């Protein structure tokens, strides 16, 4: 019987890569990188053999989709930010049985979901970046399953049920899983003409968004998920949640939604990036 051994909401900002290169941004994202490393370390200590990544950079327009190939290997350049991420090599083992099981459980709930093993179906950087930093210094590597979470025509209710299906699949599998919601908090990127004059790489575009982000982190740390879930639809809409925050909806669906009794632990202190609000948070699980 499988088990969920770690649950987290994480950043995947591309400036994490530039932070390790010579140049004006060197060292800028050290705290975020260190946060990923700590989450990876905790996942290994908890016995995780697989990471399921809810990827808000994988855009899906019809149904839900899971990249559950046996093996992932490629060289990634971002269409969105080719100046930030280019020629990035990656290689991970997959867990197709778990991906297929998620799809089976989701379809049984009336949530149309396909699991794919297609060599030419590349991973997106919402998966590649956190997996790169979480596993880089680990002797044992996790397998990877990626779930599309930039959902353009999907309801939060169906994504909640997909989250339930993910948990059911984990428990019916032989895998110990780290579930990673990969996406920002607020996500209002600076308008292009305002980016440079506002030092856009290191600033937030909206004080309202920053204040709501900080309140959300306070609710998570205090374990007030009932309040958070009530505000989540408006939070996603008015604070421009990345991928409409379907990654977060799936995560809390897996955790039990309003039955979840844990708390959030901030691993990386809140920081702005290109107008957006970012952090790394781990959610406690029952022992």
From TrEMBL:
- Classification via SUPFAM superfamilies: LigB-like
Q: Identify the residues that the record assigns to the Extradiol ring-cleavage dioxygenase class III enzyme subunit B domain, covering every copy.
A: 7-283
A GO molecular-function descriptor: 3,4-dihydroxyphenylacetate 2,3-dioxygenase activity
| This protein's UniProt keywords | Dioxygenase, Oxidoreductase
Record InterPro entries: HPCD, Xdiol_dOase_suB
A Pfam match is LigB
PANTHER family according to UniProt: 4,5-DOPA DIOXYGENASE EXTRADIOL-LIKE PROTEIN, 4-HYDROXYPHENYLACETATE CATABOLISM PROTEIN
Q: Tell me the protein's name.
A: 3,4-dihydroxyphenylacetate 2,3-dioxygenase
Annotated source species: Ciceribacter lividus
